[in-house]
Amino acid sequence: MMTSPVSGSDRGILPAFKNTGKSLLLLMLSMSVFVALAFETSAKTLPQLATNQQLIENQKKGADLQIETVDDAFEFVFSKLPDKVFVYPTENYYYFTFPANGVVYAGNLRLAAQDRDEGIIHFAAFRQANQTSEAGEMLYKPYSAEDGVEVKKLAPFSYQVAYNNKQVTFVLNDVSSIRPPEHIVADGEEYLGLVVDESGIRFFLFYNTKHRLFAYVLDETEAVPEQFAESEEAGERILIGLRTGFAVYDHHYLDRRVLVGVSGANTIVNNYFDGPADQLPENHIENDNLRKAITDSDPAVAGLLDQFGYFMSGEGRYLITPYMQYLSPEELAGYDQCANDDAIAEEIYDACFYSGSE
Questions:
Q1: Strands lying side by side in the sheet with 121-127
Q2: Which of 67, 159, 324, 358 supports an S-S bond with 261, CB 3.0-4.6 Å?
Q3: What pLDDT, on a 0 to 100 scale, did the predictor assign at position 131?
Q4: Which helix (H) or strand (E) holds 52?
Q5: Comparing C-alpha atoms, which of 147, 137, 141 is closest to residue 105?
Q6: Rounded-to-integer distance, Cα 311 and Cα 308, Å
Q7: pLDDT of residue 33
């Protein structure tokens, strides 16, 4: 026989709802709504699923797409952008890939700090490199009003780009308020800014005025989108990212992990895990601190660089790469040998993490 959950035999169970079926119904409905909202909130925070089916079908869709000129590539990419995008990397590159005529193209749109307020957006695309083939010819062009592309500043870190009756808002990554915890800063270090790499990993960029060396230190003030594992071949204090291949050293004296290596295989194919050297904090240069640090470290380039670290001759940017491009973890063992050497005094300890590759 079916009995009421609030019958007289419940003896104290749900006393507030005795003989109040309506209230119980409202409670049950409220709980249902709560569960539904909790599920919806959880679903919003879960990642999207990428499948091989999607990859193959998207590749097939690009079978008839012909990319012969830089304008062909730009028109296609811009037509596929959503109305609003967020640019994570701190050199303001918005990266993309797309299939075309049997291959995959990679590239970026960039609102560079030095000329975006002049109405310029840079565009580059090329056939993507992989383990069996090199990258194709670079298709590059700075687009402006002369090309029918309007770049309008909406706010310090927000720009509207219009082309072919379409408008896209680019929101740049404002990390100006982020500062490293004091307890991770080594003696003699100046903080230059936060670097957000295209891998999604964040680093504090320091310049050590005592050793005249740079260092990328892992930002662990928020969850790091990576899992690190110890490397027996490199040394117990060297941790290598399972996703990115980034190798960091677990500092003996400070609660910090210093970037000491990136996988050479990733730099060869120029993918998202090729290291943070091309993502300097150009939006937040203060008092010409970047150029001053570079020229202090390397006096030979004094007078040759602009405030963003670019050679004024146009040959590119000065690369800050105080880490190794390694092909096997064994190559990283020298860092551990240096840092564990009893003859290395604490005051010169941080010089162990410089690869000499700048």
A1: 93-100, 103-110, 121-127, 139-143
A2: 324
A3: 81
A4: helix 52-61
A5: 137
A6: 9
A7: 54
